[in-house]
Amino acid sequence: MPGLTIGDTIPDLEAETTQGKIKLHQFCSDSWTILFSHPGDFTPVCTTELGKMAEYAKEFNERGVKLLGLSCDDIQSHNEWIKDIEAFTPGCKVSYPIMSDPRREIIKKLNMVDPDEKDSSGNNAPSRALHIVGPDLKVKLSFLYPATTGRNMDEVVRVVESLQKASKFKIATPANWKPGDPSVIQPSVTDQQAKDMFPQGFQTKDLPSGKNYLRFTKV
């Protein structure tokens, strides 16, 4: 996938949002941020997704994560659409800003263009993309979904926790890991270093190779 990807610094763009004008670096600095695009306002899958983002906003806030949406429709359209989103998700408010990109400049710079999906005018629509950006303004993880498949917010929460733990400790999260499960210690950490880093202890799995690289611990 060409363009912005894992490890890249996000561009310092200016954008109009439902909460006023922002500069991307200023908005994202010193916190984790989820940037997510959707193909269009007043569309069924996107309405459910933004409703779920609103429902999960407290979960993300507790983890120090900001939310920032993006669509090519204008601000007036966004504000009208928010009424539908909140009606579909009773008790939840869209408290996060949604960027407007009518000239489709931002989606290109953020690598959020769907080459196959067109709008009613024949222009490329945004993909159902999601970037998780670290406090250093670098992309830590990206999801790219087709317009027909909605995102799973439990998975977004899961990978946020994984990324945050890996940034704090010398660990990685294994297959099917969930918050609260043991993590694995990174191979670059020696057993002696692991004893110092993880005073709670760790468990090494016996393997046919005899190599002691699969070490589990809870952090």
Question: What topology does this entry show?
Answer:
Blueprint: E1 14-17, E2 20-23, H1 24-28, E3 32-37, H2 44-55, H3 57-62, E4 65-71, H4 75-88, E5 98-100, H5 106-109, E6 113-118, E7 124-126, E8 128-133, E9 139-145, H6 153-168, E10 171-172, E11 183-185, H7 191-197, E12 203-204, E13 215-217
Parallel strand pairs: 3-4, 4-5
Antiparallel strand pairs: 1-2, 3-8, 6-7, 8-9, 10-11, 11-13, 12-13
Report what the structure shows:
It is built from 7 helices and 13 strands. The chain is an alpha+beta fold. The strands form 4 sheets. The chain has a 5-stranded mixed β-sheet with strand order 5-4-3-8-9. A hairpin with a 5-residue loop joins strand 8 (about 130-135) and strand 9 (about 140-145). Helix 2 (about 45-55) crosses helix 4. Its EC number is 1.11.1.24. Thiol-specific peroxidase that catalyzes the reduction of hydrogen peroxide and organic hydroperoxides to water and alcohols, respectively. Seems to contribute to the inhibition of germination during stress.
